[in-house]
Amino acid sequence: MNTNIKTAKRDTKISYYVTNRPHVVKELVFFFIITFAIMYGLGGLGMVFRSHIENIFGPISNNNLFVMILIYAPTIAGLTLTIIFEGWSGLVALFKRGVLFIKPKWLLIAIFIIPLVLLVYGLFTYLTGIGASSFNWIAYFGTFPLLIFSLNIFTDAAPIGEELGWRGYALPRLLQLHSPIVATSILSVFWTVFHLVAFLSEGTNQFGMSFIWFTLFVFSLGFIFTWLYMNTGGNWIVSGVLQHYIIDSFAINGAFKVGPGVSISLGIAVIIIFLFKGFFENAGMHGSSATLTGSLADAPDAK
Fold first, then answer.
1. Please, is 23 exposed, middle or buried when counting C-beta atoms within 10 Å of its C-beta (0-12, 13-18, 19+)?
2. CA 65, CA 45: separation in Å to the nearest integer?
3. What is the chain's mean pLDDT, rounded?
4. Considering its fold, how many domains does the chain have in total?
5. 301 part of a folded domain
6. Domain around 217
7. Are 4 and 273 in contact (CB under 8 A)?
8. What is the value of pTM for the model shown?
9. Which of 2-11, 164-173, 229-238 has the lowest mean pLDDT?
10. What is the pLDDT of residues 255-291, one digit of tens each?
11. For residue 157, is it within any domain?
12. How many Å apart are CA 18 and CA 233, to the nearest integer?
């Protein structure tokens, strides 16, 4: 491990990656401006000129090319700004962080945590009858082969289209400024509001969904993603893309509906992580307190 990031001023091992960028606030502001300019700018035009958009791209849905461009806004912003502020070497380093070696324990946790939470929720609905209509056992078990053998990772724009931006670019910069809890809360606000256009657009996955329960759903996922990010050394593919792909696959396949049941279940999982101090183990090891290089080229080993 690089000696520049091997030690910290508080003599505590850094187990997850944060940046130490000199103009981190500017980089974050530009990121959110570009992301929302694409989503709300193009998205707003799409709503106003919907008939023309549909004539060109077909009916509005999450598989519509125009909608997919909107969903890709965070990744477009993250890639663009990485090249501008760090050059091509920074871009290479960004992708290197996505393939960091992580210990098998955390890879298994990353693969099974969301299916396990959904399983527990499914058992709850089965035993109590509460919310039984919001969980489909056939679709749940049928999603596992789809995760392995389907091409949903490419046809569902959200995992790749969002996560390079949210977890690859924005999260390590927010962690430079704030604790994991605050950084995740800020990012989750932007992540939630990012989807607001979809709630107003008939044909999208979010149309007709409860925004309140969706907010809890997104915040809970955000904390689970950050927890995995912290324990995989900042591997944004495992902690972001993979998780987003898994949860979306179960939802798209009809295993569950976003509502009070699954949102509260994910929230309980976050509370359990809190109780085991999952977000406090490296408290204070963000940004200014850690001896890190200014580029994304170096990253600490995972636990």
1. exposed
2. 15
3. 87
4. 1
5. no
6. 15-289
7. no
8. 0.88
9. 2-11
10. 999 999 999 999 999 999 999 888 875 433 333 333 3
11. yes
12. 9
